[in-house]
Design goal:
The radius of gyration is 19 Å and the shape is globular. It contains 10 helices and 15 strands. Helix 8 packs antiparallel against helix 9. A 5-stranded antiparallel beta sheet has the order 4-5-10-6-7. It is α+β, with helices and mostly antiparallel strands. The chain is 28% helix and 25% strand.
Amino acid sequence: MRCSGYLFAHSAGEALSLLAELDGAGRVIAGGTDLMLAPGEAASATLVDISQIQELRYIEQRGERLHVGSLCTHEDLATSPLLHERAAALAAAAAAVGSPQIRSVGTVGGNVMNALPAADTAIALAALGATADVLGPGGTRETDLLTLYAGVGRSTVDPAREILTGFSFRIPRGSSFQRLAKRKALALPVLNAAAALWDDGEGGARTEVGIAVGPVATTPWRATEAERLVRGHAPTRELIEQAARTAMTTAVCRDSIRSCALYRQFMVEVLVRRALLEATGLAPTGREAAGPGTRSSAVRGRAHRAAPGRTDGGAFDQDAPASRRGGDR
């Protein structure tokens, strides 16, 4: 993309008006940590910078749901006491993105708009059953997070006419984020997984669960067959073992420069098991304990804060195209 102009918006309404005036020739940008400018390309766009819109930068509890603005940086999420207490998986996922510099600038909205199947915060949000708010010419529409994905690097949100404004999800009883990478500093994930649990009834009669894994499909993948095994039952180690095996057998992994498909498939079982054990409060022991190259979240009210100087690898899948549809956030 060739940049032909740069405008700042100070409110969501102003940003929408600027996009309308540009009539398809504008693109939204916020953090810009994944922006690629190619001066030689014929296509050009005027960038509409929304990074100064404070109304889109919030982390709030409203009743039984948490609401997160799209302009929250990864550092905002990783250090949020509310997320550590109520949705530790999302805090841990944000802490795993890039480097301290990237986490201080890159946003959760951009992580989702890039539409990559292993984006750390997107995997956590998918497991949490998040919905997204999208502002467009016709007003705001609320949609399931996964409907924003049209394939690797392709979002259904039109960056020339719409703005992703925020996310919300029901507060889980427990949640967990697990990540496997070849090293702990600035390494793209071989695989990541997240799980969230809601228990509204006695004896697990109304248990709900969300399990997400990436990169497995061309979008963040929900392990729906494994979820069905847990739903409506009080979680036990035996049930979690069955669910983890089901996630492995139903996942369709692929080869890449970072891992062969077979290894990834076996690791789906390992990471899903660990995520479910943490989310349910069943302390991991033996082979469930995190090993070299893996990172897990703290759950059920225990704080999980990024250590000073922590650099845990980026969120982008190796199969992403060189240019992506949508403005970088």
